[in-house]
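A further point concerns the way the authors explain their paired sequence and structure data. The central task, working out the C-alpha cells from the amino acid sequence alone, is never made concrete. I therefore recommend that a typical entry be quoted early in the introduction. An entry of this sort, consisting of the sequence and the corresponding C-alpha cells, reads as follows:
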Amino acid sequence: MDEQLVIIMETKEAMRALCAINDGDCALLYCYAAAAGGRCKMTEAALHTGFDDRRLDRAKSLLLLYKVCK
C-alpha cells in the first residue's frame, strides 16, 4: 500500500519549521503536499517532484522529524 504524507502543522508554523530545516527537497515536498490538499501519496509525490527514492525518503523523514507532517 502507498504511504501517505499528511500535513499536521499550521501554515505559519510550518513555514518557520521549513526555514529552520533549511532543506530545499523538504520544502518542495511540503509544497506538493499542500497543493494536493494537505496530503499526498508518496508515489505521486515522487512522480511530480522527480525525486528518486533516496531524496523522497530524506525529505519525508525531515517533515516527520520536525512534526510538520505525519
Q: What stands out?
A: The mean pLDDT is 96. The longest strand covers residues 4-6. Residues 32 and 48 are 8 Å apart (CA to CA).
